[in-house]
Amino acid sequence: MNKIAILTSGGDSPGMNSAIRSVVRCALSKEVSVVGVSHGYQGLIEKRFCDLGRRDVSNIITRGGTFLKTARSKEFYSKKGRKKAHQNMSEKGIDGLVVIGGDGTFKGALVFHQEFDFSVTGIPATIDNDIAGTQETLGFDTALNTAMDAIDKIRDTAYSMDRIFLVEVMGRKSGAIAVHSALAGGAEDLLIPEMEQSVSSVLKKVQQGREAGKKSWIIIVAEGSGKTLTLAQELREHIDDVRVTVIGHVQRGGSPSAFDRILGARMGSAAVQSLLQGKKHHAVGWFNDRPVTYPLQKAIQHKQEDFSEFIELVQILT
Q: Is 128 a catalytic residue?
C-alpha cells in the first residue's frame, strides 16, 4: 500500500484532529503518502483532495472539530455517487481509506468496500458513544466533561433559589452522556432511552423529596428519551420553580480532553497498521486500555448498553 486517504464524516467530535494527525504521521513514517479529503464523502465525489505532509497537521490537536471539515453526503447514498468517488480515488492512486465518524460513516464505508473491494478502516468518533465493539468513542470524554461543567454551574443556581432544573444532554438514542454526567454531577434523577421510567414516577420522587425538606433538584434528561418538555409541563402543574436547560451543541465543540487526544493518537496509529496488515473492512476500537481492530459489520450493529448499575448508584447517592 503506497497511498491512503483520510476523511471525517457526519457530526464533528473533539479528538478528530488528533486522529488525523496520528494517521498522517504514522503513515508517513512507513513511507505511505496521505491524501486529505475535505467535507467527508462528498469530497470524494467532488475531488476535494489535498496531499498532507507532517507540517500540514501541526498544532491541530488542541482544536475541536475537524480541520478537514465534515459533511453529510446524500449523493454518496447512491451507487452512482459511490462509483464516481471510487473512480476519483483510483485516478489519484489511492489504495486505502481511513474514515473517522459514527455509525452512518461506518455504514457508508462498508458498502463502499463491498461494492469495490476497497480497503477501509473506521475510527469511531462520536460524542454519543454508541458504536458497538468499543468501550469509548472519540469525543465522548470531552462532551461528558462539558456537560458536567454545565451541571455544576446550574446546581449553584438551583441551590441558591430552591429550584428544580431539567438538564437535557445530547446523545441521540444513547443515554451514555446522561448516565455518566448524572453520576459525575451528583444529579438526583435521570431519564434515558434505555430505561423505562414514567414521568409520574419522577414527579412522585420529587414531591417526596420536597416533603422531606429537599428544595433543589437536578434531573438529567437524555435527548433521545423525548421527555424533557412533557416532564417540565407535569412538574409545573405542581411546582412553580421548574427550569429547563438544553446544553445542546456546546457538547460537540471545545478543546479535546487529554484522554481524547491520546485516544485519537492511538486509534490513528492502529488504523494505519490495520491497512498495512491487509485488513480490508475493519474498525478500530478501545478495550482494556488498548486499541483493537474488528470487522465493520460488528461496528454498525446496535450497541447494547446496560446502565443499571449506574442508575442504581445515582439513586443511592441522591
A: yes
The per-residue pLDDT for range 20-29, each reduced to its tens digit, is: 999 999 999 9
Looking at CATH, the fold of the domain delimited by 142-253 is given as Rossmann fold (3.40.50)
What percent of the chain is modeled with pLDDT above 90? 89
**Torsional class of 230: left (φ above 0), alpha (ψ -120 to 50), beta (otherwise):** alpha
The Cα 150–Cα 220 span in angstroms is 12
Which CATH class, in words, describes the domain spanning 3-139+256-299? alpha beta
Query: Which of 128, 130, 141, 189 does the annotation list as catalytic?
Result: 128
Domain definitions of the chain by residue range:
3-139+256-299, 142-253
At residue 318 the predicted structure's pLDDT band, cuts being 50, 70 and 90, is: confident
| Widest distance between CA atoms in the chain | 72
- Cell 513514517 locates to 29
Under 8 Å between Cβ of 183 and 194: no
Residue in this structure with the C-alpha cell 412553580, named with its chain if needed: 240
**In terms of pTM, does the model score above 0.90?**
yes
User: Residues 146-191: pLDDT tens digits?
Assistant: 999 999 999 999 999 999 999 999 999 999 999 999 999 999 999 9
Q: What percentage of residues in the chain have a pLDDT greater than 70?
A: 100
Q: How far apart are CA 52 and CA 33, in angstroms?
A: 8
**Residue 200: its pLDDT value, please?**
85
Do 142-253 and 3-139+256-299 fall under one CATH topology? yes
